[in-house]
TrEMBL record:
EC annotation from Swiss-Prot or TrEMBL: 1.14.-.-
PANTHER family: ABM DOMAIN-CONTAINING PROTEIN (PTHR37811:SF2), BLL5343 PROTEIN (PTHR37811)
Protein name, as recorded: Antibiotic biosynthesis monooxygenase
ABM domain residues: 12-86
MF (Gene Ontology): monooxygenase activity
Source species taxonomy: Bacteria, Bacillati, Actinomycetota, Actinomycetes, Pseudonocardiales
Catalytic class of the enzyme: oxidoreductase
The keyword Oxidoreductase is annotated on this UniProt entry: yes
Length: 111
């Protein structure tokens, strides 16, 4: 995982914002999360992912996809669906999912 944000891409593309609060039961979470991060990289149209977690437990993951087809491939992946179910059953106290079409995007880097 990088400390730099994912670069800006030429719009339009999609951002999937997944905001979570986890439960105390995190058995198997780390391994499954690592597997999902590897699996999503094989989805044609996947552009990258940003993560942040505060000390209080609020986590935010933003995944970027080129188009709706890429989103649908990831959404319907069977291994991803199984991980989603396990998340609802064990790992998440609550979560919110937002899917947004990005219409403007730019990057700034201090030299």
């Amino acid at each position: 995982m990088s400390d730099a944000p994912v670069e800006a891409f030429e719009p339009p593309y999609y951002a999937v914002v997944f905001t979570t609060v986890r439960t105390d039961d995190q058995s198997g979470y780390r391994e499954t999360n690592a597997r999902m991060e590897e699996l999503v990289k094989d989805v044609p149209g996947y552009l990258g992912m940003d993560h942040a977690q505060n000390p209080g437990g609020l986590g935010i993951t933003v995944a970027y996809f080129r188009d709706e087809d890429a989103l649908m491939r990831w959404r319907t992946d069977l291994e991803h669906r199984a991980a989603q179910k396990r998340g609802r059953d064990s790992w998440y106290q609550s979560y919110t999912l937002h899917v947004a079409k990005v219409e403007r995007s730019h990057t700034f880097t201090r030299s």
